[in-house]
Amino acid sequence: AQSVTQLGSHVSVSEGALVLLRCNYSSSVPPYLFWYVQYPNQGLQLLLKYTTGATLVKGINGFEAEFKKSETSFHLTKPSAHMSDAAEYFCAVSANYGGSQGNLIFGKGTKLSVKP
Amino acid sequence: EPEVTQTPSHQVTQMGQEVILRCVPISNHLYFYWYRQILGQKVEFLVSFYNNEISEKSEIFDDQFSVERPDGSNFTLKIRSTKLEDSAMYFCASSTRLVNEQFFGPGTRLTVL
Q1: What chain A residue is nearest to B38 in terms of C-alpha separation?
Q2: Residue B2: pLDDT band by 50, 70, 90 thresholds?
Q3: Which residues does chain B have within 8 Å of residue A106's beta carbon, measured at their own beta carbons?
């Protein structure tokens, strides 16, 4: 069975500071990994995804994440936080095998606050 | 930019009543999903749908739930007899192909009284 753990339900950073949101996954098969962002009263928007190939993936709004198989991690980073980054962030995993129907398994989410 | 739309944005119903949540996926997408998020909890997979039939469903998706694609554009989730614990935000999503980026709608907040 697959699962996702996001450490920290709430992270607070100052504007301009590094953003680090942690995600660890459990999967018995090679995973596909995703980060989604949810702004208030909106749906989930894809930030970035890892399927195969380069383990460092870049997404929208200056975010990036690195797939580390040995650590079963897919942490999300951004060098310099902006006020507009304040939102809730969800890490998700999908099974990468022929029998999968593509459903996403989500973590509990991390709410990011950005202080001026 | 194409987007997934959902109606209504908020539905209030009495326990035991039937509700239908509606979604219009992105037009060239082939795979459709419903997820729900109970307040303060994880987003949970309910069901996936492809080629006019259910592909996969979770244990949450019991006999009280059903999905349908009644025409070429709508994708609906029906809850036959709502319970208090069905109160949640329900998200519809669609994708062009299996295990690809899923595009999510803004959600329908269902409140069961």
Answers
A1: A108
A2: confident
A3: 35, 42-44
